[in-house]
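User: Assemble these into one structure.

Assistant: Restating your components, then the assembled model:
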Amino acid sequence: MSMIYDEKYETMEREALSQVQLERLQTVLLRAERNVAFYRRAFGERGVRTDRITDLSGLADLPFTTRADLRDSYPYGMFAVPLRDIVRIQTTSGTTGRPVVVGYTRNDIRNWSLCMARILAAGGVSDQDVIQIAFTYGLSSGAFGFHYGAERLGASVIPASSVSVDRQIAVMKDFKTSVLACTPGLALAVASALPGSGIGRVDLALKTGFLGAEPWSEGLRRGLEERLGIAALDIYGLTEIVGPGVAGECPQRSGLHVNEDQFIAETVDPVTLRPVPPGVEGELVLTTIAKEGFPLIRYRTGDLTTIDASPCACGRTTARMKRVTDRLDDMITLGDVKLFPSQVEEALLAVQGVEPHYQIVVDRVAGMDVLEIRVEVSETLPGLDEMRVLQRIEDTAAGRIEAAVGLRPKVTLVEPRGLERATAGKRRPVIDRRER
Amino acid sequence: MLRVRNLRAGYGGVEVLKGVSLHVDAGEIVAIVGANGAGKSTLMAALAGLLRPQAGNVLFEGREIGGKPAHLVAARGCVLVPEGRQAFPDMSVRENLVLGGYLRARRGERTAVREDLGAMLGMFPILGRRLDQAAGTLSGGEQQMLAIARALMARPRLLMLDEPSLGLAPLVVKGIFATIVGLRKAGNTMLLVEQNARLALSVADRGYVMETGRILLSGPAEDLARNRDVQRAYLGKEYRRIDD
C-alpha cells in the first residue's frame, strides 16, 4: 500500500504550485544575491536584476552553476548563511577532484526529511516497515536522507553501512528487513551472493528496494526484482542539491516525481544550453527554492532525462522526470561512436551465461581506440570449462553490444566473483586507459 | 484566496514594494513580518486599495483587485483593520459597529447585521459594556477590539490586520491574539502584518519575511520562527560574513 504523505504539496494544482515556485524562487534569488559572492558576481556579469524575474520563464535568463563553480568555492564559498547556522556538513565523493562541501541549516534538514518521507511513502513505506539502509553513513549524504525520511514515517531504521555483503544478508534475514535502501550495485551483489549463502529468498521479508546514487538500467531492475523478490524503485538526488530526496518513483513507475515545491527542474540542450520542450531529452538543471544554507541556482546536474508535467495516475500532480540511466560524464567516446554504460548493461542482461557484473575498459592500441568488456560468467553455467561454450558466450555478448552501440567490442569472460564488488559505494564500471 | 504577484508600489516616486509575491489560502493565517520600514504597511495599503500599485497583480478569489478603490475591494470581502485602529472617535461603539455592516445593510441584510452585532458583543463582552460610549474614550486594547469587530461586521472573506499589537500593553496584546486564534478556529482567513514577529509566527500557519520591499524568506511559520536570520533580525543585529 502506498499513500500520499503530503497531500497539500504533492497534489497541488499546477497553477497554485507555480505561484509557490515563483514566490520561493524570488526569495532564493534575493538571498543568493545578498549572501553569496559568487551569485552577486554572476548576476552582475549577466546584468540580471533579481527583482525583474517576474515569472518562472525568467529562469532562462539566470546563469548556470556548474560543478567546477562549486569546487572553486571550496570549502564554504557558496554558503548563504553563517557557519554558526549550519547544523550539518556533507560532501560529494570527490573522486575526480576537490569535493563539493554542502551545508544544511536546521530547516534544511527538516525539508530534506519531508522530501524523503514523501518518496518513501510513495513506495509504500510506513511505520510497519523495517528499513535497512546500506548506503554509507559518512561524508556523502545518501544514508542520512533515507534515515531522516524513514524515521519521520516511523519505520524501524537499521543503519547497515560498511558491512560485508554476507553480513547484509544475515541482518536482512534476522531483523526481518522489509525495505532495502542501497546502490543498485550492492543490490546486485546481494542477489549474486544469495544462492551461496544458504539463505533463500523465502527466508527474507524483503518487499521493496529503493535504489539509487548511480544509473541502473530497466533490465537490471527486472533482474533484481526477480532474484530478490522485491519491487525495485528508483530514487534520484545528488549531494550538491540535497542528497536523495529530489525525486522518487510512485507505484505507477512512469517517472520519478520531483519535489517541485522544493526544487525547480528544467531540461536544457547540453550543447546550446537552451531549455528543451517537455518530453525532449536534455540535461537536468535544478534550482533549490527552499534551501537556506546552500541554495543553488540552475545547477547543471550532468544527468540526462525528460520531464513530464502531466498528472500521474497515482494522484500526484508533481512533474515526473524519466529515470536517469545516463550521466553526461559517463559517456564514452570512441572515434565517432558514443556510448553509455547503461547500453552495455542492457545488452549483457540479455546474454545467457553471464552476470551483470561487468567492466568497460577503453584503451588506445597503435593509435586506435579499442573497447573491451569484461564480464563475469554465471556460477550456475553448465559446461563452464568448455572452451566452445565460453567462446559462444563471448560471441553472443559481443554481437549484442555491437547491435546496441554500433561497435564490436572484445569480450573477456571473467570467473565468477572475479571483478571487484561494489559494497556501499558506487560502481565504477568504466576504466579509460587512453591518455587525455 | 489571495494571490499577489510582483507587486510594486510606493509614494511620490519612491518605490517601497519592489516586486512582492505571496498568497493566502482559505482558512489560513498568514503572517508578514519584518523590521520597521520593510514595507509591510505599504503592502497592506496596496492590497486594500488605499494605494494604487505601479505594477503587478492582486487576484482575490480569481478576480483582479489591484488598483481598485478601497470600497470596491472591501465590497469583495477583502477587509482591512488598519494600523492604529482608526475608530471614529466621536461616534459610539454601537455606531462604529453598525458602520462596519453598512454595505451589508444596504444590500438588505439588516437582520443578519443585527444578529452579527449580538455575536460581536458575545465575542467582545467589553464592547457590550461600552456600547454607548464614544469610541475615542476607549483604551487602546478596547479600540483594537472594536476595530476588529467592526471589520468582522462586514463578514469579510479575508481579514487583513495591520499591526494589531502596536502600542498595546503585553497583557492586552495577549488578549488580541487569543481573539485572532479564535477567529481562525471559526474558519476565518487572515493576513496579519506584525512587527512582533515571534507573536505573529506563533499564531500563523505560514509566513513571509519582508526586507526593504521584497520577500526574503517564506515558509511554514514554525520554520521561520526557527530561522536564525529571522531571530537575529529582530534583535537588530546583522551578520554578513561567514565567520560572524
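Residues 66 and 300 of chain A are 6 Å apart (CA to CA).
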